[in-house]
Write a structure and sequence with these properties.
The protein is of the alpha+beta class and about 150 residues long. The chain contains 3 helices and 7 strands, in the order βααββββββα.
Amino acid sequence: MTLFSFNIIQKLPISTTKAWDFFSNPKNLELITPPWLALKITSEIRKEMYPGMSITYDVSPILGIPVEWITEITHIDKPNLFVDEQRFGPYRFWHHEHHFRPIPNGIEMQDSVHYVMPFGFFGSLVGNLVVNKKVIDIFNYRYKVLEGLFGRIS
């Protein structure tokens, strides 16, 4: 079993409140996810996120094959942090922390992702050869979209 980890930090010229309002709204995930993933939220979304909230998606991570993905919001420290974890989906394990920290002229946002592929050694091999790059591509896409929406801190 291989635990893959990925971190990305982005500085945005927005308030902590605006960052929280945007990122804690699951509907915005479709906006910042690459089209090739074909992510669609299939559950009803409440206005405010809460611990224990489950969100269901259809996503096509590999070869356009649709997969149901269910995540749960497990921790919230408004407006500094929230965590989503996979309950069912393409990974054996998925843990994603969203951190927000005020800085001069905006916020520093950090995404920390830890995941394990299914299928033991074969899954780890596919993770190394394919999935790890796709996860990086997803967050690089997100980085560019967020910069387009909010600008950047020079």
